[in-house]
Amino acid sequence: MIYAYSADEVPGIPTLSHPKKLHVAAAITSEGRSELNIFEENLTAAMYIDILSETILPGGRELLEDEAWTLAQDNDPKHTSATVSAFLDREDVNYFSRDDWPSLSPDLNPMDTLWSMLVDAINKQPPRTIAQLKTRLRKEWEILPQEKIRKP
Q: How much is the pLDDT for 19?
């Protein structure tokens, strides 16, 4: 609490106009999970295709081998863009189209629950730097029990 005769006497609180942020992307199956992809840039359709190519699709193919599987992603415009859809078609990936996945449906997306669990684990001992946060995210992702992925 600050006691002052006027607002001019109250010291300002420094803020960052553009604080650092991280984004994460990964894939899960009942059999396991992909690597965690961590990036600082704002996601674009082109970046999402790179993430699909480098992390999500190889993870799904490795985990599910010859089984038929379908990629479920939310209705983020970058996920459902014509560019991404064309890429998935070229890669012969079954996926839910924009019309198949209801908008604003977090209950259908088990990743949202896993992200919450990851944030809770990180917040138990908050990191002080971006590098520490990246390290902790990877560690917590690796030790997240597979049972939690099967039944979030």
A: 67
Rounded Cα–Cα distance for residues 23 and 43 (Å)? 8
DSSP E strands in the chain: the ranges are 23-25, 28-29, 32-33, 37-39, 70-71, 94-95
Residues 6+ apart with CB under 8 A from 20: 40, 130
Instruction: Establish if 13 belongs to a structural domain.
Output: no
Angstrom distance (rounded) from CA 10 to CA 74: 45
17 inside domain: no
Write the pLDDT tens digit of every residue in 51-77.
Answer: 999 999 998 888 888 788 999 888 888
Range of the domain at 88: 22-150
With respect to residue 2, please indicate whether it lies within any of the assigned structural domains: no
Q: Return the amino acid letter for 37.
A: N
Q: Is 108 domain-assigned?
A: yes
Task: Quickly count: other Cβ atoms within 10 Å of residue 35's Cβ.
Answer: 16
Cβ distance 43 to 78 under 8 Å?
A: yes
How many domains does the chain fold into?
A: 1
